[in-house]
Amino acid sequence: MQVTTTQPLFSATLRPEKSLSSAGGWIALVLAVIVTTPLMIAVPNLLVPGLIAIVLAGATLIWLGRRQADRRKVSQVITLWPEELEITSTGQGVDRTMQRHEIGSVRLRLERDHFERTTGVFLRHATGELELGPFLSVEDKTSFARAFGAALRQARRNS
User: Fold this and answer.
1) What is the pTM for the complete model shown?
2) What is the pLDDT of residues 56-67, one digit of tens each?
3) Is the pLDDT of residue 157 over 60?
4) Which domain holds residue 81?
5) pLDDT for the residue 54
6) CA 53 → CA 32, 34, 59, distances in Å?
7) Which residue of 43, 70, 89, 128 is surrounded by the most CB atoms within 10 Å?
8) Do residues 68 and 78 both lie within one domain?
């Protein structure tokens, strides 16, 4: 199916929530080393436990930095055209995949918690079901589901 429209009805790029930078952790670690070095020198019994704590803190910061860098590589691009829906997914260690579905063959399914907050946004299609934005926060899922659901209804009415 060839799409001739140049403007999509809806387009969204979903990415994981940005967490705090690890720079604050490194600054705290450097300050802790500066403050505790005189104490470790003055009391030799604290030298080994202090060094172990500093090495563990540094290793944890490195691990968190790598984990955050991997999360930045994850995304989903949802583009709704008048005739079809395109979903392009990119993940860590996974090739980029694109799925195309006809508007009439997809259904939006939402999962909600007991406070009626959206906890899952799923797209049912002919061959199965796909979760949209599994890495989003509850607030972002609610906002996305509202906007995407309205655009999907409009596309169905116009087709």
Assistant:
1) 0.66
2) 888 888 887 777
3) yes
4) 10-16+74-158
5) 85
6) 10, 14, 10
7) 89
8) no
